[in-house]
Amino acid sequence: MPITDFLERNAKIYPLDTALVEINPANQPAKHVTWREYNLIDTNSEADKYRREITWKEFDVKANRFANLLFTRGIKRGDKVAILLMNCLEWLPIYFGVLKTGAIAVPMNYRYSSEEIKYCLDLSDSRMLVFGPEFIDRINAVKGELGEIDDFFFVGKDDETPSYADNYDEMTYYCSSMVPPVEIKDDDDAVIYFSSGTTGFPKAILHRHDALVASCLTEQKHHSQTKDDVFLCIPPLYHTGAKMHWFGSLLTGGKAVLLRGVKPEWVLQTVSEEKATIVWLLVPWVQDILDTLERGELKLEDYRLSQWRLMHVGAQPVPPSLIRRWKSVFPSHDYDTNYGLSESIGPGCVHLGVENIDKVGAIGKAGYLWETKIIDENGKPVARGEVGELAVKGRGVMKCYYKNPEATAEVKRGDWLLTGDMAKEDEDGFIYLVDRKKDVIITGGENLYPVQIEDFLRSNDKIKDVAVIGLPDKRLGEIAAAIIELKEGAESSEDEIYEFCLALPKYKRPRKIIFADVPRNPTGKIEKPKLREIYCKGRLVEVQTMG
């Protein structure tokens, strides 16, 4: 069955139940009222700018209307429709509207520059672009070069609609709400996601409908969602992580809340007002919440949090010390982590499980409907405890990199996907990430795995974030450099960090300390290529201080 069937089922079984809520904390009313009271306030009020919601029936109707609008514009099975929106109440109905036509949805990163927008539209062969007001200037800059785009739909106020675009609300209002008469098969192409682009321009990742359905089943199995759960979704919907975690709500008919903002007070307030039970966070947000609480700027007793049962983290290696801090503040929370890639339809191909908190630091074992193995350069399984490349197999493996057979051949071995992540298994079969294959530092013939050094440095109470990269060195080839972002108000020196690192084996100690911000992309991954561009380009350094 296609994933659109889940939406249509929910619309029939739970037509009047809330499906999606959008919270805009920047528009919070001056007068504080409870979430229930927001539903009783006039739609043109200040409160409506803060909170919007739709039922499952309204969700399905909106998706049907957009699908039928697409038909009037000539969109057919296999065509590509790009979506360039910030998280909003319209995002998912538009996405499902595209899928209901048999066309292929193409979610796009809201941080893309004009050049990247053009590149991804061209690469994906998109015929249509749906975009929001935040992107007008960027699209205007390349509008004349988007010859393959037949139609533009603008999601925003009618009087702000660019002259070359049609207004989404206006055009869908008069369209039929009937379910489109399109048969969708499991093996049909469904979506194109883009790689994170941390190694240059992104690759287009093509997935089938069956991968989307499999991700629903995996997510619900891992986190035991029920109809009564409320999922708080903060990361961007263009990314597989946020959307595939929401698929647990889709499968069960539960409510989900889209929070447009990541400030700690906004997170806790939304959990409280919307009675959220499951929250997926990125490492920086976990750190910010804990730091704010520890500084006394927020107090837990000011919020209604007793219903919050699960906090899970993903998208990057998770420092064990961070989870220990979290559990000391929220001892009743279950904790989980999921590992995945956009090429594996997002999170879940490896899963820790809430029952395995004693293994915090591991990414877990093969997830529901998945298989894993760790292999050497020849594709042979390595012995337990040895480092090799993690490979995964399951229904969620991508069909291919769209229009890039060479890149596809580099990562697919039959039904197996090579992740590019170096990992090892412990004696109980739990998998630990060691580092990205391309991030390994070779210094004097020794392999250094930056994640191990980063995890150690994050145990320093003064350090908020850290990234370890290799710098070119005349004698050793490369040395490990630690870019360190200190916590607010903290002070430290290179000598202090060097002394702290004496607890590491000598060959693992960073040879250079740089105090600076650590850049991360919207999914929380450290942008190491950007750091290499800043600190490595055209320079050789001498080994110093920690020799």
Report on the structure:
This protein is an alpha/beta fold. The protein has a domain at 440-535: 2-Layer Sandwich (GMP Synthetase, Chain A, domain 3), CATH 3.30.300. The chain has 17 helices and 27 strands. The strands form 6 sheets. It has a 9-stranded mixed sheet, sandwiched between helices. β3, α5 (91-100) and β4 form a beta-alpha-beta unit. It is globular and about 70 Å long.
Quick description:
This protein is of the alpha/beta class and 547 residues long. Helices cover 30% and strands 26% of the residues.
Features:
30% helix; disordered C terminus; alpha/beta; 547 residues
Protein topology:
Elements: H1 4-13, E1 18-23, H2 35-38, H3 46-50, E2 51-55, H4 56-72, E3 80-84, H5 91-100, E4 104-107, H6 114-124, E5 126-131, H7 136-142, E6 151-154, E7 166-167, H8 168-173, E8 189-194, E9 204-208, H9 209-223, E10 230-233, H10 240-252, E11 255-259, H11 264-274, E12 278-281, H12 283-294, E13 310-314, H13 320-329, E14 334-341, E15 346-351, E16 365-366, E17 370-375, E18 388-394, E19 400-401, H14 405-411, E20 412-413, E21 416-425, E22 431-436, E23 441-443, E24 446-448, H15 450-458, E25 463-473, E26 477-486, H16 494-500, E27 512-515, H17 528-535
